[in-house]
Amino acid sequence: MTAAPLRVAFFGSPAFALPVLEAIRAEFEVVLVVAQPDKPVGRGLKRTPPPVAARAAELGLPLAQPKKLRNNAEFAARLRDSGADVAVTCAYGKILPASALQIPRFGFLNTHTSLLPRYRGAAPIQWALIRGEAVTGTTIMQTDEGMDTGPILLQRELPIAPDWAAHELAGALSAQAAGLIVEALRSVETLTPTPQDHAGATHAPMLTKEDGFVRWTDTAAQVVNRARGVAAWPQTTAFRGGARLKLGGLSVTEGAGQPGEMLAVSEAGLTVACGEGAVLIQTVQPEARKAQPAQVWAAGAGVMPGTRLDLWEPARP
């Protein structure tokens, strides 16, 4: 007699989670999809479902989009009635209450895009890039009530290409997570949980706009790594005379000078000195205007070698 396929409840919201949902759906029975509620999007503020909810609707999968999970008896009953053997979370975006974690017989498995216990939190992809990591990876963990503190079930490394920004790394990790979660679900009854070394934990909090501000006193490599990490949001921002400038196409180049000093203006872009070394900037976008080649912006703004961009440093706690 053939065993019934594992019944899975899938919790996810953004496009990042779609390959994981598709991989699970190809081999197991998805009995419930849970996503964030629809949100206003664009200038018209049209209410739009998150990508996972839209895909679930296309596929005709049972879908729930609760505003809250804690003290939500109706949703708890929906999850229980789904008959899910296990639940999988991938970039869902809400904290799970203990009452929900206990409903599936194999609990909740989370796909986390770092090598836990490093980079616990909301933005592990971005912070791995900002910190200049050469390797990251995916962890499948048993979800507990903490923030990415549960025991590890499976873990796999992923080298980070030197030219990857956040979206390239996210794509690679999404594909890796899809394969690894299927491997975990195939062996869900026999996997051995390994407690995390909490003493080695590092954190990856949600990004703020200030995380995108250039620190010209950093080394050139640090400036470029930060730009890679914030490429999707909030993007790289510098200041001149207090006015904000979005910068694009940053790379390490040769040069030395005072931090924020313009060293050269050419067709290749602007060369700006950092605390150590220099960066080449290909595009500049002034406030309320479109991005333009850096040389074009410099000509219009009267920027030349010797011009200084504003220094910005985070406030000390």
Word description of this protein:
This protein has about 325 residues and is of the alpha+beta class. The protein folds into 2 domains: about 190 residues, 3-Layer(aba) Sandwich (Rossmann fold); about 90 residues, Methionyl-tRNA Fmet Formyltransferase, Chain A, domain 2. It has 8 helices and 17 strands. The strands form 4 sheets. The chain has a 7-stranded mixed sheet with strand order 5-2-1-6-7-8-9, with helices on both faces. The protein has a 4-stranded antiparallel sheet with strand order 10-11-16-17. Helix 1 packs parallel to helix 6 and helix 5 runs antiparallel to helix 7. The protein starts with 6 loop residues before the first strand and ends in a 16-residue tail after the last helix. The model has no long low-confidence stretch (mean pLDDT about 95).
Strand order of the largest sheet: 5-2-1-6-7-8-9
Give the tally of β-strands: 17
Which residues sit in consecutive blocks of at least 5 with pLDDT less than 50?
none
CATH class type of the largest domain: Alpha Beta
First-last Cα distance: 64 Å
Assign an overall shape.
elongated
Pfam families: Formyl_trans_C, Formyl_trans_N
Catalytic activity: L-methionyl-tRNA(fMet) + (6R)-10-formyltetrahydrofolate = N-formyl-L-methionyl-tRNA(fMet) + (6S)-5,6,7,8-tetrahydrofolate + H(+)
EC number: 2.1.2.9
Protein name: Methionyl-tRNA formyltransferase
